[in-house]
Each structure stands twice: as structure tokens, then as C-alpha cells.
Amino acid sequence: MSFRFGKKTRTLIKLPAAFTIRWCALWVMPTLMLSPLLVATLRASTLLDPQPENSSTLFGGSIADVGDIDCDDVPDLAVGAPFQDGDFAGVPGFGPPQNAAPQWGTTTLIETNSFFASASSALTPTALTFTDVTAAAGFSGCPTCQLNSTWCAAWADYDGDGFIDVITLGHIQNLTNSISQLWHNNGDGTFTDVTSQAGLDPHNGDAHGAVWADFDNDGLLDLFVSKGSLKTHPVNYNDLWRNNGDGTFTNIADSAGVQRGHRNRGAGAVDYDNDSFLDIFATSFRRPHDNAAPNLLWHNNGDLTFTDVAAAAGLQRPLDINRTAAWADFNGDGLLDVFCARTSALYKNNGDGTFTDVTHAAGIIHNSNDVQAVAWGDYDNDGDPDLYVTLAVISGGGGGGADGAMHAIDELIDSPLAIELPNILYHNNGDGTFTDVAAQAGVGAKQNPDGRGSDASFADYNNDGFPDLFVNNGAGSTVGTYMLFRNNGNSNNWLKVVLRGRQSNRGGIGAKIRLTAGGKTQYRQYTGQHYMGQNHIPVHFGLGQATSVGSLKIKWPSGTVDTLHSVPANSTIRVVEGSSP
């Protein structure tokens, strides 16, 4: 496996490595939100499977998000840059020169045009260009804000009109006068701020993580928002917004039992116990002066109430520094496992509501508190999900328990003496263990002195069937580069599935997929959670050398089941709920 790296926007340079990088040659501080959203639109003249309607082709996280804003079935890239816990510095965002004056309260929308002769051909050296379409898209930002700081952009078609909308969250609003904004996609490449119209509160405290999910299986996407400050004031209580079905929402967090918590960061919707109701996992960030900050695993009781079962499940981690988590079935047993960070640990789902820490047994060797974000993706299409981990700096304390490891991490990140570590690409060996292959793949993603990893996303931006990698650097208040790694692929085959709900929510969020090909069975839950935001991409499967899929079974949130047989490999298919024989 190899990737290609280019140091200029319009140049691709081959390297003797596993990936090819395209570096936007633009400097960012992912912890400083000069503009809450930056979007790069990737267009292709020929697609593997052109579709007549929006395929919801998105990927993202709080600082690396993508949405198919113009419905051309090619992923569009959004990049936001939030504050990091009290760090303040003024540097320009994505686009202006590094020494340009900051423009507070603006939003930048970057459109990327990608043209290639056919879907299977390699990109030419001039294939990728970027165009600023901020004004045309209507991302006006917050003109009254000192600095619109955001941790999160979460994408979903909340009103079922076929166009992907996005919510951006304001961070430390009391210090920056930032706001949260719900952007409705108008279907013509423009967005409208409908926050107040939808009944949401733009001044909703220290908002960090957001996740769209249908928590009561009524076919409408609800919204959970986690807050990053202590719950000493109602504005910093977590929110659970129930979708009323008319474009408005009602906050039911109190009656649902999810208001309170700790310094919550990332949030994910996941059916960890396979009872057909999406649960909520919210990570908790422990400060040096906090006694404890346990994570929260809210089990969905099926009646829009939730019960915290994190202690019984073994996922509380009260003395660790928890920033975010990523879920995937890494061992193919049909149960979702979870990788937690900032102090890194891999937990195996036992299938009885409990989890076992298998970090060391799995070969996860870097167990420290400088892990910023994690992303699952089968980069080599062998049928086993791999794991990419971004690292900031050596934090000098090891595990992050109650003693020595609980120092001022953010200050260390910003220190000129901090040692920057290469990011990690854990290859799944298929036997429950992982091997770090970042060096061989060429995805260490550190260009000193700006290699303090912040976030990363897997997405097949050029529709060749192999997940590419987008990496953000700039943890703390440091400046970093965006790095786009193009996956050069191998001889393995693949399948991508686009979901189209009817009785269920239109994007199919919450659907479970079981695929069997070449004697191997794989499982996916489509929720899209990533870092503190939310993805919205086709569901990707690596097939190894299998040339077709024997069976593909989709269980929708409504309970409807669709089963397909003899699906050809190396194709993108759209499955409409209830359409199978």
C-alpha cells in the first residue's frame, strides 16, 4: 500500500511510501476558530456509480469534515478550527496567508474541483484545485462574535429533503461570544442559518460534541449535544433535541436523564448491545484538580429515557483523560468495540453488556495521554478495520492515572520543548492484534515544527474504492498543516453501500449491515460518529480477493430487513429501504 504526497495545491509528488500525500500548503491552528467551517468540494467528471440524487457522501469530525453539499456524489471537505481549552492566539485560517490579519466571525467555504478521465484512472498532477465559495454558500458566520470557536461540525439530513445539513457548535462561548449554528442546505449549494427558527439555542454554553441519531426509531433524526464545562450552570447541561418532524426541535434532556455529567467532550450514538435502540457514549475530560471524571454510557431504555451503565460496562475510566472515542467491530464477532483517547485504550465488547481492556494484548503499544483523535478505516481493503491515531507531543507521564500523568497537558503541547511524535497507523492483523505501519505507509504526518496531530479522517475522496486519509495538525494553540494522503491501493477489491431510508431516517443512520464475501463475514453499524463531530459517507467494505459479495443484509432502524445476493465487487451501490425481493 502506498500514498502520494504533494507540497503544493496543484502538484502531486511521488514518494517511496505507502500513501501519497497532497499537502494544501496552508497553515491552520485547529484549536483556533477564525472561521467555524471550511469546505472543499471535490468534483469528478466520471463516477464509479453516478446517482441521480444526493448520496450523502460526507466525512468529518470537529476539525475535518466533509459533505456532499452540491449532490454530485463526490465528498466535499469541511475544516473547522476550535479553541483548545483556554488557549488564545491569532492566526489566519485555511486560505489567507499565514501573516494575514485574522477576520473574526467569518466562515470560509473552500470548494475543491477534481477532474479525472475515468473513475479507475490515477489523478493527474493538476487534478486537485481549491476555490473559496464562502460568500456564495452563505456561510456568513457570526459577525458579532469576538471569535467564533467551534469543536464540531456534524452532518445529517435532519429534515429528509435529500440535502445534507450541518450543525456547528460554539466553544467556550462565555469567553469568545461564539454561537452554535444549524445550517440548512437549500439544495442549490447555499446554506441558511435556521438555528432559532428550529428552536435550538445558539447561546448553548461550552458546546463540544454533537451527534445526529434517531433515538426513538420514529424515522426522524434527533440531536445530542455534549457540553465541555462542569455542570454548575444550566447553560452547560447536555442537550437532547427531539425532532418534531416540522423543522423544529424540543429539548428533552432532563426527562431523558442525560442532562448532567462531567466535562463531556466527544459523543457517539451506538447500539453497543444490539437491542435495536441507539445508546449514547459521552467521554469525560478530567482536569488536574478534578477528583474524577467518569465516562457516561447511557443505555437507551426504548422510551426516550436513558440509564448510565458505564460503571457496569467497565468504560468509566474516571481517573483517565478522556477526549473522544471511536467504535468498530475490529474482530468480526458482530459486536462493536471501542477505542478511547486521550489516554489510549482498546476495549473489546464481551456481548453481555461489559467490555474488557485488550490494549496490550492487541499490541496497542503507545499508551499515553497525548492521543488527540482516532479513526477506523480498512485502508488496505483486506476486510479488517485498521486504526489511525493522531499524536500531539510526548506528555511525559505515561498512562494518565490519578498521579503524575495529570499535569497541564495543554501547556505542554504549546511548549517549544515538546517532542512531536509521528502519528500511528495500526494495521489490523486479523487475529485480534495490530501492528504500527505508519512509517512504511508514509503517514506519520509530521512536518516539524508543525506536526502536533489534532484530527484525522478516512474517506475515499476520489472514488477509487480505497480510503484516503486527511490529517490536521496544530494541537493546542500551535500552527499546523493540513495533509491529504491519497491511497495508491493494491489488488484487493471493495464495495461501498449508500443507504436511502424510507420508513427509517433518509440517511439510514443506525442501520446494521452484515456482509459475507470470500468466506469472511463483516459487520458495520452506520452512525458516522467521528472525533467530536459526525461523518456521513457511504459504508465501505474491503473484500480482499473476493470478486463478489455472497450476501449483504441490511437491518434498518424501522426493523425492515433487505438482503442482496451476488453483488459484484468494486462497485458503489444504493440500497433503498424495503426494495429487496
Task: Furnish the topology, listing elements before pairings.
Blueprint: E1 3-6, E2 19-28, E3 39-41, E4 65-66, E5 76-78, E6 110-114, E7 128-132, H1 134-137, E8 150-156, E9 165-170, H2 173-176, E10 181-185, E11 191-193, E12 207-213, E13 222-227, E14 239-243, E15 249-251, H3 253-256, E16 264-270, E17 279-284, E18 296-300, E19 306-308, H4 310-313, E20 322-328, E21 337-342, E22 345-349, E23 355-357, E24 371-377, E25 386-391, H5 409-414, E26 424-428, E27 434-436, H6 438-441, E28 453-459, E29 468-473, E30 480-487, E31 493-500, E32 512-517, E33 520-525, E34 529-530, E35 533-534, E36 539-544, E37 548-555, E38 561-568, E39 571-576
Parallel strand pairs: 1-2, 31-39
Antiparallel strand pairs: 1-30, 2-30, 3-5, 4-5, 6-7, 8-9, 9-10, 10-11, 12-13, 13-14, 14-15, 16-17, 17-18, 18-19, 20-21, 21-22, 22-23, 24-25, 25-26, 26-27, 28-29, 29-30, 31-36, 32-33, 32-37, 34-35, 37-38
